[in-house]
Amino acid sequence: MQRAWWKEAVVYQVYPRSFCDSDGDGMGDLGGIRAKLDYLEELGVDVIWLSPVYQSPGKDNGYDISDYRDILPEFGTLADWDALLSDVHARGMRLIMDLVVNHTSDQHPWFLESRKSKENPYRDYYIWRDGKGGEEPNNWESIFSGSVWQYDEPTGQYYMHLFTREQPDLNWENPKVRREIKDIARFWLDRGIDGFRIDTANLYAKQPGLPDAPVTKAGKYQDAFKLHSNLPANHEWLRELHDEVFAPAGCMTVGETSGVTPQDGRDYTDPKRRELNMIIQFGHMTIDVGKNKWEKAEYRPIALKKVLTAWQEGLNGIGWNCNYLSNHDQPRQVSRFGNDTRYRYESATMLATLIHTLQGTPFIYQGEELGMTNVRFDRFEDFQDVEIHNWIAAERQKPDFNPVAALAQINRIGRDNARTPMQWDDSENAGFTSGTPWLRVNPNYPKINAKEQLANPHSVFQYYKKLIQLRKQHNVFVYGTFQDLLPDDPAIYSYVRTLESDQLFVLLNLTGEDLRLDAKPPAGKILLSNYTGRPVWESGVLLPYEAQVILC
Ligand code: GLC
User: Fold this and answer.
1) Are 318 and 273 in contact (CB under 8 A)?
2) Which of 102, 172, 388, 536 shows a CA-CA span of 20 to 30 A to 296?
3) Which residues line ligand 1 (CB under 6 A)?
4) Using an 8 Å Cβ cutoff, are 277 and 269 in contact?
5) Closest approach atom of ligand 1 to CA 415
């Protein structure tokens, strides 16, 4: 297998707005990130992925960009950003930026021009169509609820937005648009960054002719995902970016790709196809939801195993996985796949073991290394997320709208769970800000915070640190092959990673029950355990959320 620095790295995602506020305005900023680099160095991560810090009206917390070459003043200046990059590099770490180019903000100068007239030179930068009989051009539903089309008065046409209406989609078919995007990427690479996390990297190409989506549910707008994802042109355009920008810079790329199969994953990450290094796939993010993310389905551990094993086997020897359980779009993993009360330490560390011992690059989302949990808000006004507000607005139109049930859904799966401020210490507002935080702090911060965990040898933080060190000491964590040892077991995830004469056995109890292990692992050296090291090959029992990593 080809070695690469990004395969050996551990990535840490910073959501700047919620990380650390250095100037008391209630919003995290670049100064705050710089102040916490010691913390990240102590944890041992190699790459920092910065969610967007560009100029933006903030309708989608920076995923709606109005100037790709400047920093949002609340976060700081370009000079602050340069200082951050040089501090990161001075510590031997790397920095990757979010490249958000499926859409811009509706306040981006290109869009302000584009909407002026049908003849405007920027008209073709976006996707404009005439309506059909006084209705939208087609029945596609936006990922953020409602139609993907917005009527625009000045020219009497509609523009497309897969996300919220302040995020008009760029027209990637226009070579000028692709040239602009390549220039933006080069701008940041020239400034010294080490790669990109590429937002919605599989949604650029839209089905030619923009046909209606099949009617599969009640209501006017229909799921059109297949008509605007993973299309052949999307692969071509990524290859163009790869050949003209990413490969010459030798940078790392990880594309966010919802709704992909392992076959798609091979297509995106097989180096021979020259597209991306890795992708963020969503298979395991859909196992506890119904037809859409707001519908609850029962979480069954075997579903998690099946998805992850399919990706391990699917990309084996061809592409490369990105292993994650949380990010700024998902609820907190310990609340979702673990137990955030009685077994918070055990389940947080077991889940950590999972993402660090599968083949692929582990991605940690800020606060995950503290076992931060979902929050509970009792009023709709407490939520800030546009996805949540758009969904509620659409739900309120329905005759059977039930506010109590809706609130429960948001508290369970909503994105603000991940976005509450980092919990640094037990002082007011968790040490995140001296002002009023833009989103309320999770009230459990006096108990769950970095200061306490840095001082406590038996903390989730210390366990993450150990895992990261082990991954650096033993190449088998990175390059070992993967074999699922108990594919049919409903609750135990056990696999072996093999590299030459090294074998790494991983045993994970995905539940809060004691479980008997029928197939005994061989005796070896316990590299890591989230209980006090009783060898499972002797006891034959896995305790609630027990994790054991054995080197033979
Ligand atoms: C991606 C981002 C998400 C954002 C969306 C639109 O999914 O991760 O936060 O809302 O793209 O840019």
Assistant:
1) no
2) 102
3) 60, 63, 100, 163, 199-200, 256, 328-329
4) yes
5) 9
374-416 pLDDT, tens digit each: 999 999 999 999 999 999 999 999 999 999 999 999 999 999 9
- Which of 200, 202, 281, 282 to probe ligand 1 with, by most ligand atoms within 8 A of CB? 200
Residues facing residue 103 across a β-bridge? 169
Rg, C-alpha atoms of the chain = 23
In angstroms, how far is CA 260 from the centroid of its own chain?
Answer: 15
- For 190-211, write each residue's pLDDT tens digit: 999 999 999 999 999 999 999 9
C-alpha to C-alpha distance for 309 and 306, rounded to whole angstroms: 5
Q: How far is the centre of ligand 1, averaged over its atoms, from the C-alpha of 282 (Å)?
A: 13
Is this model's pTM higher than 0.85 or not?
A: yes
| Catalytic residue flag (residue 518) | no
Length of the chain: 552
Q: Is the pLDDT of residue 518 over 90?
A: no
- The pLDDT, as a whole number, for residue 1 is 78
Nearest to 265 by CA among 244, 249, 282: 282
Taking the CA atoms of 431, 445, 330 and 192 in sequence, report the sign of the dihedral they define. positive
User: Is 368 labeled as catalytic in the residue annotation?
Assistant: no
Structure tokens at 109: 């100068």
| Burial class of 121 by CB neighbour count within 10 A (0 to 12, 13 to 18, 19+) | exposed
113's CB contacts (< 8 A; 6+ apart) are: 120, 121, 122
